[in-house]
Design a protein that fits this description.
The complex is a heterotrimer of chains A (about 240), B (about 575) and C (about 190).
Chain A: H1 13-44, H2 61-94, E1 101-108, E2 111-116, E3 129-132, E4 134-138, E5 143-149, E6 154-158, E7 163-167, E8 173-177, E9 183-189, E10 201-207, H3 209-222
Parallel strand pairs in A: 1-5, 4-10
Antiparallel strand pairs in A: 1-2, 2-3, 5-8, 6-7, 6-9, 9-10
Helix pairs in contact in A: 1-2
Chain B: H1 23-28, H2 33-63, H3 77-113, H4 121-141, H5 163-166, H6 169-199, H7 212-243, H8 257-291, H9 298-311, H10 327-339, H11 341-355, H12 364-387, H13 389-395, H14 399-429, H15 435-461, H16 480-513
Helix pairs in contact in B: 2-3, 2-4, 2-16, 3-6, 3-7, 3-8, 3-14, 4-6, 6-7, 7-8, 7-9, 8-12, 8-14, 9-11, 11-12, 12-14, 12-15, 14-15, 15-16
Chain C: H1 17-46, H2 50-54, H3 59-84, H4 88-118, H5 127-158, H6 164-189
Bound molecules: heme-A (HEA) (2 copies), dinuclear copper ion and copper (II) ion.
Chain lengths: ~240, ~575, ~190
C-alpha cells in the first residue's frame, strides 16, 4: 500500500511495507465481511407488511456460535499481526546491527544540524563535516544515528526510509538506517515543535560511493573552521 | 393591564408546579436533570459550532495556503497551531463529553431507570456551572496576548511548559486551567450518574433490566473517574512549571518531559472509550427499537464492555511507540493494543447479529445508528495498523492517524449527537422533527464526511504529517495530486457544513412548530416512553412512579398482539 | 424544591447513597494522589541524589504531624460512634476536636514551610522540593477543605440534624489521613 505512493529507500522499508500489506489483507477481509453482512441484513430484514420480527435472545449456544466462532478467528488473526509487528519492530528499533558509519543529528527550533564523519571516518575529530538541513550519506552503508534535541521535542522522519524517531531534550537516542536508493529525499520534523514546525524540513542526499567520497573531499577542509561544537549554535 | 390582575397563584400553566418559577430559577439555577441536560446540550452545540468553524478555517488554509479566508482572514503559523489545538480540545472535551456523556446521561438516566431526578441535584447543577465556567475560560484564552495555546491537544512539554518555546504565555495556562476545570465538572457529574444508577432504580429493575445505554454511560463515568486523576495531578505540575518556575518536565533541571506523555495517555486512551461507550449504548437501544428485535446476547455485551474497560488502562503507550521509550516496552503495548480489538470486534458482531430476523424501518435515528456501526468499523480496523508497532514506525503522526481517529470521533461526537437528538427529541421538547428533512440532512452529512476523510487516509499513507500549516517546505508533500486531494477534502467539508443548516432549520422548526409528540412515538419499551412528552417535573406523577417487570428489549415476543412490551407493564 | 426527590430515598444497591458517593469521591482522589506519587517515585528512582535533598526535611515535625492526624482520625471514629447512638451534641464536640487536629496540622505545616523557605528551599529549588511542596500542598488543601466541611456537619449535628453525615465526613477524613501515611515516609523518611 505504501510503496505505491512512496518509494522504499532503506533496508527495512520493505519489511514495513510487507507488514502493512499483511494487515491490510487481514483487516480488510474482516472489514468487508462485516460491512457486507451488515448491509445484507438491513436489506434482507427490511420492514415488510405482514412479516413480524423474530424473537431471538442470542443467549443459546446454537445462536451464540455466530459470534463466538468469528471471535476466535479474530484472535487467530491478531496473533499473525502481532508476530509480524513485533518482528519488524525488533529489527528496526530493538536490534542495533554493527555500524559502518555514524551521523549526529541535532534538532532545535527550527533547524536540523547534521554532523558527518570527515575523511578520517571518525566522529568527533577536527575534520567532521557539519551541515544545516542537508544530510549526505552513502548508499548501502549501515549508519548509526545519534539523535538529540536542544529545546523541545522534535521528530526525525524520512518517509522513503520509513524512519521516524522522536528527539527528546535531555536524551541521546541511538538508532540505525541503511539507505538503498540514491537520490534526494525529504526530511520532515514530525512532532509539533512550535510556530516554525512547518519550516523544519530538510533534504537527505544519498550518494554512491564515488560521489560521496568527492563530497567528503570537497567539504572536509571547508568546514574545518566551523566544525566546533554544534551546541554553540543553540541558545 | 398587568396591574389589574390580582396576584393569585398560577394554575393554568402546569399542574405540577406549586410555585411560579422565575426565569433564572427555571433556566439558570434549575436542578431538574432534564433542564441540566438541555443546558449541556446547547452549550455543547455552541462549542461544536466554534470547533467546526476552526476546522473550516484551517482546512481552507490547507487547501489554499496563504489565502484571505472568508470570515477569518489570513492564517498565520501561530494561529494555525492554535486553531487545530483548540479544535481538537473543544471537540473532545467541550463537545463529545458534554453532549454524549453529560447531556444524554442527564436526560436518560433518571428517565430510563424510573426515578424523578438525580440523587444529588445540586451537585448536578454545580457540575454544569463549573463546566460552563471552564468553557468561558477556554474561550477567553483565544483573546489574551499571544493568542490561544498552540501546542496541540496533547500539549507535550517542554513546548507547552515554557513560554519562550510556545510564545503563548497566558494562553497555555488558561488552556490547561480550562481543561482541569472541565475534569472537575465531569468528576462531579460522574458521581451522580454512578450513584443514581446504583441506588435509585425503579422497584423491580434488576441489573439485567437496565438499558444498555445507561450501563454504558455509567461504565464510561467509572473509566473517566479512574483514569483522569493522574492527568489532573499532571495538569497541576504543568501549571506550576508554567507559572512558578518548577521543573517537573524540564530535562535541563532534573525533570522529564516523557512523564507528561505517560500521564496524558494513561488518561487519553481510556478517554477515547469514555466517549465511545455512550453512543455505542444509544445504538443498542435505537437499533432494537427500529428493528423490533431483542438485543443479541445482552450479557455478552456487558462482559465485553467490562473487558474493554479493564484493557483500556493497559494500552496507553501505543501513542508513544517512537517517542523514545524503551523499545522492549513497545512489545507489551502492541500485545495489549491488539487484544483490545477482540472485545470491540465482539461488540460489533453482536450489533450486526441483532439485525438478523428484525423488522427494520429506516427512520432518521435508525439511519444515524446504523451509520455509526458502518463508519466506526473503518476507524476501528485502521487502529490495527497503528497498534502494530512495526507499522506505526511509518504511520505515527501522519494523516493516517488523523483519519483513523476522525473515523472514530466523528461517529461518536457528531453521529452520536444527531442519533440521540433525533431519537429523544420528542421526549426532550414534546414535538416531532421532520423525518424527511432529517434524512436529507443525514445523507448530506454522511456522504461528505467520507469524502473529507478518505483522501486524508491516502495523504497520510503518502507521508503527510500532522500540524503543518503549509506544506511548501516539503517538496514530496507538495505534488499537484496531493494538493488536489486537500482541496477536495476542504470542498467536501464546505458541502457538509452547508447541510448542517438543514438540521438547524429542522431542529428549530421542530421545536416551535413540530406536531405534538405522543408518549411513545417509536413504540419503544424503556421507561422514558411511559411518561408524557416532555415529562413533567418529577418525571411521573408521584402515584404513577413505574415498577419494572422485564428487560428493555422484549420486542416481537411470540404470542403477543403488540410487537413491544413496555418494561412497566404488569405481566 | 422543598421536598426531596424520590430518587434520594431509594437504595437498590443496599448502601446509603451518601456513603456510596463518598466512596466514589475517594476512588477518584486516590488516582489523583496515585498519579502524583507514582511520578515522584519514578523520578526518585532515577535520581539517587534526591536522598540528600530529602535529608533537609524535618522528620520530627513530620512525625509529630502524623501523630496529630492519626489521633484526629480517632476522634472522627468516636464522633461516628456517638452519632450512630443518636447523640448529636457529643458527636459535634468530637468533630470539633478533629477540626482542632486539622488546625494544628496546618499550623505546624505553616511554620515548617516558613522555616524551610527561609533556609532557601523553595518550590523551585529542585525537582525534589517541587514534588515536596506540590504533594504536601495538595494534601494540606484537602485537610483544610475537610475541616471546613466538618465544621458544617458539626453545626448541624449539634442540633441533632443530618447525623448520617458524621460518618461520611469520617470516611473522607480517614482517606486524607491515609494519604499522609504515604506521604510521610516518601517525603521525610526515605533519605
Ligand atoms: C474514540 C476514539 C478512538 C477509538 C475508539 C480508538 C480505537 C483504537 N485506536 Fe485510536 N486514536 C484515537 C481515538 C480512538 N482510537 C485518537 C484521538 C488518536 C490520536 C491522538 C493524537 O495523537 O492526537 C488515536 C491514535 C491511535 C494510535 C497511536 C497512533 C500514533 O500516534 O502513532 C494507536 C496505536 O496503536 C491507536 C490504536 C487504536 C486501536 C487498536 C483501537 C481499537 O479500539 C479499535 C478496535 C476496533 C476494531 C479492530 C474494529 C472491529 C473489529 C473487527 C471488524 C474485526 C477484525 C479485526 C481484526 C482481525 C483485528 N489509535
Ligand atoms: C470529537 C472530535 C473531533 C471531531 C468531531 C472533529 C471534526 C473534524 N475535524 Fe478534527 N481533530 C480532532 C478531533 C475532532 N475533529 C482532534 C483531537 C485533532 C487533533 C488536534 C491536534 O493535533 O492537536 C483534530 C485535528 C484535525 C485536523 C488536523 C490538523 C492538523 O494536524 O494540521 C483536521 C484537518 O483536516 C481536522 C478536520 C476535521 C474536520 C473537517 C471535522 C469535521 O467533521 C467538522 C465538522 C463539524 C461540524 C459539522 C460542526 C458540527 C456542528 C454541530 C454538531 C452543531 C450543529 C447544530 C446546529 C447547526 C444547530 N481535524
Ligand atoms: Cu521540529 Cu516540528
Ligand atoms: Cu490510544
Amino acid at each position: 500500500m505504501i510503496e505505491s505512493l512512496v518509494p522504499a529507500g532503506s533496508s527495512y522499508a520493505g519489511e514495513i511495507d510487507l507488514l502493512v500489506n499483511m494487515i491490510l489483507w487481514i483487516v480488510g477481509f474482516w472489514f468487508v465481511l462485516c460491512e457486507v453482512v451488515f448491509f445484507w441484513l438491513i436489506f434482507r430484514f427490511r420492514k415488510k407488511e405482514g412479516v413480524p420480527g423474530q424473537y431471538i435472545s442470542g443467549e443459546e449456544k446454537s445462536q451464540k456460535r455466530w459470534i463466538t466462532i468469528p471471535h476466535v478467528l479474530v484472535l487467530v488473526c491478531d496473533i499473525f499481526i502481532l508476530v509480524g509487528a513485533i518482528w519488524v519492530w525488533y529489527d528496526i528499533k530493538q536490534d542495533l546491527p554493527p555500524a559502518q558509519a555514524e551521523v549526529r543529528i541535532i534538532s532545535q527550533q527550527w533547524a536540523w544540524t547534521f554532523v558527518h564523519e570527515g575523511a578520517d571516518g571518525e566522529m568527533g575529530t577536527a575534520d567532521d563535516i557539519t551541515t544545516i538541513n542537508e544530510l549526505t550519506v552513502q548508499v548501502d552503508t549501515l549508519y548509526h544515528y545519534k539523535l538529540e534535541s536542544l529545546d523541545v521535542i522534535h521528530d526525525f522522519s524520512v518517509p522513503v526510509w520509513r524512519l521516524k524517531q522522536d528527539a527528546i531534550p535531555g536524551r541521546l537516542i541511538t538508532g540505525w538506517f541503511e539507505p538503498t536508493l540514491t537520490g534526494s529525499f525529504d526530511i520532515q520534523c514530525a512532532e509539533l515543535c512550535g510556530v516554525g514546525h512547518a519550516l523544519m524540513g530538510g533534504t537527505v542526499h544519498v550518494k554512491n560511493a564515488a560521489d560521496y567520497a568527492s563530497w567528503v573531499a570537497e567539504n572536509s577542509t571547508m568546514s574545518l573552521a566551523s566544525a566546533a561544537t554544534p551546541h554553540a549554535g543553540g541558545e | 393591564m398587568a396591574e389589574s390582575i390580582p396576584a393569585t397563584p398560577e394554575l393554568a400553566h402546569d399542574e405540577h408546579g406549586h410555585h411560579e418559577q422565575s426565569f433564572a430559577s427555571k433556566y439558570l439555577f434549575s436542578t431538574d436533570h432534564k433542564m441540566i441536560a438541555k443546558q449541556y446540550l446547547f452549550t455543547g452545540i455552541a462549542m461544536a459550532l466554534i470547533g467546526g468553524f476552526f476546522a473550516y478555517a484551517f482546512r481552507m488554509q490547507l487547501a489554499f495556503p496563504g489565502m484571505d479566508i472568508p470570515f477569518f482572514g489570513v492564517v498565520s503559523p501561530g494561529e494555525y497551531n492554535s486553531l487545530i489545538t483548540n479544535h481538537g480540545t473543544i471537540m473532545i472535551f467541550w463537545v463529545a463529553m458534554p453532549i454524549i456523556l453529560a447531556a444524554f446521561g442527564n436526560l436518560v438516566i433518571p428517565l430510563m431507570i424510573g426515578c424523578d431526578d438525580m440523587v444529588f441535584p445540586k451537585i448536578n447543577r454545580l457540575s454544569y456551572q463549573i463546566f460552563l465556567l471552564s468553557a468561558l475560560v477556554l474561550i477567553s484564552s483565544f483573546f489574551v496576548e499571544g493568542g490561544g495555546f498552540g501546542g496541540s491537544w496533547v500539549a507535550y512539554p517542554p513546548l507547552s511548559s515554557e513560554p519562550q518555546y510556545n510564545l503563548t504565555p497566558l494562553g497555555s495556562s488558561l488552556w490547561i486551567g480550562a481543561v482541569g476545570l472541565e475534569f472537575v465538572a465531569f468528576l462531579l457529574g460522574g458521581i451522580n450518574f454512578i450513584t443514581t444508577t446504583m441506588n435509585s432504580r425503579a422497584p423491580g429493575m434488576k441489573m439485567n433490566d437496565i438499558p444498555i445505554v445507561v450501563w454504558m454511560i455509567v461504565i464510561a463515568s467509572v473509566l473517566f473517574m479512574a483514569s483522569v486523576g493522574p492527568l489532573l495531578a499532571g495538569a497541576i505540575m504543568l501549571l506550576f512549571d508554567q507559572n512558578l518556575g518548577t521543573a517537573f518536565y524540564d530535562p535541563t533541571r532534573g525533570g522529564d518531559p516523557v512523564l507528561w506523555q505517560h500521564l496524558f495517555w494513561f488518561f487519553g486512551h481510556p478517554e477515547v472509550y469514555v466517549v465511545f461507550l455512550p453512543p455505542l449504548g444509544m445504538v443498542a437501544d435505537i437499533i432494537t427499537t427500529f428493528a423490533r428485535k431483542k438485543l443479541f446476547a445482552y450479557r455478552t455485551v456487558l462482559y465485553t464492555v467490562f473487558g474493554t474497560g479493564v484493557l483500556s488502562f493497559t494500552v496507553w503507550a501505543h501513542h508513544q511507540f517512537i517517542s523514545g521509550i524503551d523499545p522492549r516496552m513497545a512489545n507489551i503495548f502492541t500485545v495489549t493494543t491488539l487484544l483490545i480489538s477482540i472485545p470491540i470486534a465482539e461488540l460489533m458482531f453482536v450489533y450486526i447479529a441483532t439485525l438478523y430476523g428484525g423488522r427494520i424501518s429506516l427512520t432518521t435515528p435508525m439511519l444515524w445508528a446504523l451509520s455509526f456501526i458502518a463508519e466506526f468499523l473503518i476507524g476501528g480496523v485502521t487502529g490495527i495498523f497503528l497498534g502494530a508497532s512495526g507499522a506505526d514506525v511509518y504511520f505515527h503522526d501522519t494523516y493516517f492517524v488523523l483519519a483513523h481517529f476522525h473515523y472514530t470521533f466523528f461517529p461518536i461526537a457528531i453521529i452520536g449527537f444527531y442519533m440521540g437528538v433525533t431519537y429523544w427529541f420528542p421526549k426532550m421538547f414534546g414535538k416531532m422533527m421532520s423525518d424527511f428533512w432529517g434524512k436529507v440532512h443525514f445523507w448530506g452529512t454522511i456522504i461528505p464526511f467520507n469524502m473529507i476523510f478518505i483522501p486524508l487516509f491516502v495523504l497520510g499513507t503518502a507521508g503527510q504529517h500532522r500540524r503543518i500549516y503549509d506544506y511548501s517546505h516539503f517538496p514530496e508533500l507538495m505534488t499537484p495530486g496531493m494538493q488536489d486531494m486537500r482541496v477536495f477534502a476542504t470542498m467536501s467539508l464546505l458541502v457538509m457544513l452547508a447541510f448542517q443548516l438543514v438540521f438547524l432549520i429542522n431542529f428549530v422548526n421542530g421545536m416551535i412548530r413540530g406536531p405534538k409528540a405522543e408518549k411513545n412515538p417509536w413504540k419503544a419499551n424503556s421507561l422514558e416512553w411511559t411518561t408524557e412528552s416532555p415529562p413533567p417535573h418529577g418525571n411521573w406523577p408521584p402515584s404513577e412512579m413505574p415498577t419494572v417487570y422485564r428487560g428493555p428489549y422484549e420486542y416481537s415476543v411470540p404470542g403477543r398482539e403488540k410487537d413491544y412490551w413496555p418494561q412497566n407493564e404488569p405481566t | 424544591m422543598s421536598d426531596r426527590p424520590i430518587a434520594t430515598t431509594r437504595s437498590a444497591a443496599g448502601m446509603p447513597t451518601g456513603k456510596l458517593a463518598v466512596w466514589w469521591v475517594v476512588v477518584s482522589e486516590i488516582v489523583i494522589f496515585g498519579g502524583l506519587l507514582a511520578s515522584y517515585i519514578m523520578h526518585r528512582l532515577a535520581h539517587s541524589d534526591w536522598g540528600e535533598q530529602a535529608a533537609h526535611t524535618n522528620t520530627w515535625i513530620g512525625a509529630f504531624n502524623t501523630l496529630v492526624l492519626l489521633s484526629s482520625s480517632l476522634s472522627a471514629v468516636l464522633a461516628h460512634k456517638a452519632a450512630s447512638e443518636g447523640n448529636g451534641p457529643k458527636a459535634a464536640k468530637l468533630l470539633w476536636l478533629t477540626i482542632l487536629g486539622a488546625v494544628t496540622f496546618v499550623t505546624v505545616k505553616g511554620f515548617e514551610w516558613a522555616h524551610e523557605i527561609e533556609l532557601g528551599y523553595t518550590i523551585t529549588s529542585s525537582t525534589f522540593w517541587s514534588f515536596y511542596y506540590t504533594a504536601a500542598g495538595l494534601h494540606a488543601a484537602h485537610v483544610i477543605a475537610g475541616a471546613i466541611i466538618m465544621g458544617i456537619v458539626a453545626v448541624a449535628a449539634a442540633k441533632n440534624r443530618e447525623l448520617h453525615r458524621v460518618e461520611l465526613i469520617g470516611i473522607y477524613w480517614h482517606f486524607v489521613d491515609l494519604v499522609w501515611i504515604f506521604l510521610f515516609p516518601l517525603l521525610y523518611i526515605a533519605k
